[in-house]
Model the fold of this input.
Amino acid sequence: MRTSWSFVAQARKHDNEVGGVLWFSQYQPSAGGYSPVFSSAVEVPKSFSRGTLFEFSQESSYWAFCAVGNYAQTAWSYIHPYIAKKQNEVESELFEKVELATDKAKKMVEEKESNGKVAEYLTSVSLEVGEFVFTTWKALLFELIGLVHDGYQTGVTEPTETSPTAIKMTEFFYPRWWLVLTDYFSNSVEAKDWTPPTNSWESVENVFGTVEFSKSVAERVSLARTIWDDGTTLNNVGEQQGGGVITACLLLAAGVCVGYFFGAKSSKTPQVYQQLP
Done:
């Protein structure tokens, strides 16, 4: 996320008028697209020289790549494969285009058609492919939104004799380790008013186990109650005391409980969050 730009320099043994190629991209490599810029080019694509970190711009390739990268981070394992596929498609096309342009430029040199024409030609190719990559990535953002949105991955069913092609929405959900560490289940499991989405993972039992998780919740409540030396419980503390002091105490108690629980857990299994499924 801290990458502003990157490049791969392709040094080639050609006449200086043909030269090498700089494959250039802005933003992080995992989200952007590399454009070939010939070393003899006298101009770069306009989208490379537009933009500032202070403000989003639709004229800047950096922001086009950044928008794609940031959207992918909302559901990386589902969205990034689409980006990688697009990168492979575009780069394969550009590899071929660079070879064709190189052959043409070499032929121009051999036929003594230089006098600036080779540089002019390779500049036009650099500008053309840069604009192609830029517009492709701007369109890619909207493709990704259509493919993955609202907790669903969009697909299509295969047509059969009895049914035509239909849209297929596959549900996905937050990682189980995140749901556990944020206490997503603490009320839902206790109240038994929640059913896990079967398309995403088998059942709540795979988190800690319903019984084991309920037990851990009860332990947290019990620990919180021991904070009050006079035996005051969480249920009646609000009735015996009032105002901002009680609110502060409740918040402190909740923090101590959570910290104690995961601290104790971590002392037995360091970095427990990395070991959860």
Q: What stands out?
A: The chain has two domains: 5-149, 176-275. The mean pLDDT is 76. Residues 172 and 200 are 5 Å apart (CA to CA).
